[in-house]
What we know:
Elements: H1 6-12, E1 71-81, H2 88-99, E2 105-112, E3 115-125, E4 130-133, E5 150-157, E6 160-163, E7 169-175, E8 182-197, E9 204-205, E10 208-209, E11 213-214, E12 219-226, H3 227-232, E13 234-237, E14 240-243, H4 244-248, E15 272-275, E16 279-282, E17 298-309, E18 311-312
Amino acid sequence: MKNKHLSILLALALPFAVACGDDGTTPTDSGTGDSSMGDTGTLPSRCTFPDEQTDPCCQRTSNADQLDAPELRISGVQLSQPSSLSSIIVSQLLTDALNDDLFNWLLTANITGTTAEITTGFGQKSPAAVFSFTMDAAPAPGDPSRWNPVMMTGSMDGETLSAPELSETFTVPIFTEDGTTVQLELPLRNMTLSMLTFTEERSCVGGTQPGGRWDTAQGSIQAYITVADADAGRLVAGPIDTTLCMFTAGMPAMDGTCADYPQSGWAVQPDAICDDTTGCAADPGDGTVCDPSTTCNAWLMIGGIAAQAVDIQ
């Protein structure tokens, strides 16, 4: 099926044309962080599946009878960094996939007092609009367990849920319109759930706003995307078909992978370092943690999220 957003993406891809230097290897800044590129995170004028969803956050069910065990699907994502992933191309890709149930990131919480045991990760949707986590379902190449859910121990403060940095990596896939072809995989390492504030009897986090925007100010996350993980996966959106690393580094029009280009010439350089022993740490911008041109090996990803109640089995 032809991608219904192809013509839009063709037009939006123009700012991503990356020029080469005289030696043919050095990319110029793609300008992906320009907030003047237009409105992002827009929604249809009504819920995508009106027979299944209700206002105010297009939820499919209510958590009113299970306040100590809310079940949610992430419904809106607005990334603020890195600049390449906060671009309108990625924002629209994420929004379209979320609206069409092609990006299904689930979260459940078992709450006892002020403690919450959280499970989060990729989920599949049944024809009856019931969601479920998957186990060992990721296709080759790569680890078949990379889409498996992970667990975090968090805390409740009133109606706000949070959780400290996770020590694991989990990946959430995004599919094309056929529902089976992977368009993008987001490999999230050492994620922190900074804030998730419930409303509507813990059935919503944020919701739709006038003008059809998601309110993503009620939820926030941060995670790291390593160069190695990003170079192992692809991002396919209209005319763009490259590795996630090449796109994140600001080189979507260049051939090959990030390993083919010196890091000192990347338009959007890594700003953090991750290793299996000490975890991840972001550089404050002065090179004291890692050098963006040489030793930094990951990008810090920060974003706001919205969520809606769904039935998870």
